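Dear H.,

Thanks for agreeing to be a second pair of eyes. The structure we're designing against is below in token form, covering all 185 positions.
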């Protein structure tokens, strides 16, 4: 646990708990350490944002809104850097005695949004990111980055269609009941 005195995600909730139905909008920014999965991570100095409405409800505080975080990683297709911003919807409850499973804890009426923000980001960080959805990746034969260069490793399109046609012909002659795929795309 970080022992810094600045806790940007801590909301002093005394005001909130005065009356059921009280609502309060909060936008908080801060650095949260160790936001990473195997494929991507939030940069160490990048702030995460929580933009939420807190509402006093019977037994605790309801929190709903969005969490935003920039991440960086390596594109799974072309191995170049990949980056984007996560926008994660959140809707959680904070209660006295909450343990982070069903509900998050309230301590003396204080709502610490950080565990919720951390969980939301960790769940959404991409395990196998793409630099962009249409990334063409590396050529499996010569290794060039197909986003930047064209190579001649692949057979011309005409021949590929011919091969597909031949396959279809084979399937046709074998009847329509055969469930086994060839794994070709
Ligand atoms: Zn890529
Ligand atoms: Zn190639």
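And this is the sequence the design step returned. I haven't edited it by hand at all.
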């Amino acid at each position: 646990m970080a022992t810094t005195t600045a806790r940007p995600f801590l909301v002093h909730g005394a005001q909130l708990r005065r009356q059921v139905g009280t609502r309060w909008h909060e936008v908080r920014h801060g650095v949260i350490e160790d936001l990473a999965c195997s494929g991507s991570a939030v940069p160490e100095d990048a702030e995460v944002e929580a933009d939420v409405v807190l509402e006093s409800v019977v037994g605790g505080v309801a929190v709903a809104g969005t969490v935003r975080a920039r991440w960086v990683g390596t594109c799974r297709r072309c191995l170049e850097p990949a980056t984007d911003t996560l926008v994660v919807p959140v809707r959680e409850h904070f209660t006295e005695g909450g343990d982070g499973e069903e509900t998050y804890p309230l301590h003396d009426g204080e709502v610490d949004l950080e565990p919720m923000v951390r969980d939301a980001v960790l769940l959404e960080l991409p395990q196998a990111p793409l630099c962009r959805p249409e990334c063409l990746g590396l050529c499996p034969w010569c290794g060039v980055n197909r986003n930047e260069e064209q190579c001649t490793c692949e057979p011309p399109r005409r021949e590929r269609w011919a091969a597909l046609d031949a396959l279809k012909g084979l399937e046709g002659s074998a009847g329509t009941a055969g469930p086994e795929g060839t794994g070709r795309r």
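Two observations from my side: Residues 75, 77-78, 80, 130-131, 135 surround zinc ion (ligand 1) (CB under 6 Å). The radius of gyration is 25 Å.

Warmly,
E.
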